[in-house]
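My current task is to audit a protein record that another person submitted. Alongside the sequence sits a line of tokens, each denoting a local backbone shape. Where you disagree with what is written, explain briefly why. This is what I was given:
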Amino acid sequence: MLIISLTIIASLFYILATSHVLSRLFHQQGPSQKLTIILSTVAILAHMLLLVNSVFRTDGQDLSIVNVALLTCWVIVVSVTTVSLKFPATLLLPVVYGFAALLTIASLFIPHHILLQSINVEIGLVTHISLSLLAYCVLIIATLYSVQFYFIDKRLKRKDLAIVHSHLPPLMVVERQLYHLLTLGTVLLTMALLSGFVFLDGMFATEFIHKTVLSLIAWAMFATVTVGHLTQGWRGKPVVLAIMAAAFVLTLAYFGSRFVQEVILNKF
């Protein structure tokens, strides 16, 4: 009952935050930062308590894909909300809050195994998991920035006066933040993969090879775009599409197989 209550509170306040930001998306003064922070803070706190009660149980820890997804989403929400305190993130907030609302609600209905286990604290494993989580969150945020960049750039090219007088951030600011995040995320992903090869056995074992191969493909795509921008000045729609494709491949690597095993196969 507690989990259901926390889920409802978190999703409700995420929806309220999303609605508020969307209602003033093209307003010159933008959404009220104070109201946005209040609504999102309540949602974030409820989301955090939901995670604590879902993961840590009296008989072990539940590390199912649903809870891992909720944790990843929470980190992204906190990161984007924090960034919005200093830099305009009017387009990112409704996307992040809206997805968080959908995910928290879906967590009540998605069938999944309860994976109860005692966690052995090994420095190598903790390092790999931490770097992997950070890399994924940073690269997903970079992907959101790339979508924001493409949206603003497209509206400007159409000479849309609404975008000029809106509260949306300047295009060059978005582009600079995008490539800073992309570079940081690629470095973190590189370190995560290296830590996996150094500290973990069986990265190319049958049960893990698909995850390793997909992660390497995503890394190659992110690295190519990053190096291409730094050395050749790549930018624009092709770069945005490449970043989105790489993020999709990385998501498949992180969640694809577990989703099939814990959600789809669990139905049969």
